[in-house]
Amino acid sequence: MKLIKKQIPLAIVFITGVFTLVSYYVPNKTSIDYIETMNKWQNIVVAFAFLLGLVSLFFSHYHKIARKADGWGYSIFVFVGFLTIVISAYVSGGRQMTDAGLTPLGWSFKYIYNALSGTMFAVLAFYIVSTAYRSFRIKSLQAFVLFVAAFILILGKVPLGQIIWDLALGWTGAGVDQVIEWIMQVPAVAGKRGIMIGISIGAIVTSLKIIFGIEKQYMGKD
Known about the structure:
Layout: H1 2-23, H2 29-67, H3 72-92, E1 97-98, E2 101-102, H4 104-135, H5 141-156, H6 159-169, H7 176-185, H8 187-211
Antiparallel strand pairs: 1-2
């Protein structure tokens, strides 16, 4: 039983991981075909994972409605929204536009989905303002640099801010648009690349831990 539940899965992960890693550095037709095959299998696994997640979501909200747990009324909208989009997509044949205008699917996207998305981002704006307020409390040099950069960006996005910049710092010869472009192209890009490098290193380390059997959470609690 231990062989089936632990050793065989670890062997499959190790062999597949090593072959996939080596194939990226071996430029021949066999390695290219192998990568393409693995990509197809990845899409199949993702599709089944999406289906499994959808079923799990439905059961979770169904049990929440059955128990009448806190907020169970919102769970009803999960089923209503899902059925609305699925039925309209089936009736419309997956098309949002026809020569006559919007299909039921297109109407659902334009007047339901877009409206809900706009509402969600409008609510998120309040959380963003709250987070910005906490972030801009200057307690260190890094917080001061963040505050100055954010203040310049906000200042340059409104006409009044450009007028204030021209009156106060016009003598420098640098327009607020030029300063904003420099901030976005130099410090912001440098920070973004540093974050991406860190994420990439973390992904590589995690992948190696999975390949060599150090990380086993994907095998379950047992």
